[in-house]
Amino acid sequence: MDNIKRLEVDEFWADSTVIEAGDYVFVGYCMGNEGQSIEAQIEGAFCTLKNRLAMAGLKLDSVVKMDCLFKNISDLNYLPDIIKKHFNGKYPTRKAYTTDFIRDGILFQIDAIAYKGKAI
Fold it and tell me: For 95-104, how does the pLDDT look when each residue is reduced to its tens digit (9 = 90+)?
């Protein structure tokens, strides 16, 4: 398992928020701007995702899969315009879910998988 690198570890929650495994980077628990509007939280989550990808030397265009977690699924309507702004047509596959978050002020979170291998 030498090719698995845990780039960011949260000892309190006992998880890794960024793991590089072979040609892939797994990023979890991307949130930001807790307690603010859904638009601000989606933007904050993308900011966190960008920062975590940078730990592996990657940018958003390397993301191939995203899971988008919403407190209210009706907020999904805000997502496409924000994705278009950040991905410039290089969209990942994605799925949206609703969930109960651990704190009331959280409305949105992203988990993602990015490809780090050689260009095809």
Answer: 999 999 999 9
Report the alpha-carbon distance of residue 42 to residue 77 in Å, rounded: 11
Q: Minimal CA–CA distance to 67: which of 18, 25, 109? A: 109
Domains by residue range for the chain, with CATH: 31-115 (3.30.1330.40)
CA-only gyration radius of the chain, Å: 14
Q: DSSP states of 19-77 as a string? A: EEETTEEEEEEE--STTS-HHHHHHHHHHHHHHHHHTTT--GGGEEEEEEEESSGGGGG
SS3 of residue 119 by DSSP: coil
Q: Is 15 helix (H, G, I), strand (E, B) or coil?
A: strand
* Rounded mean pLDDT, 43-49: 98
Extract the tokens encoding 108: 């949105």
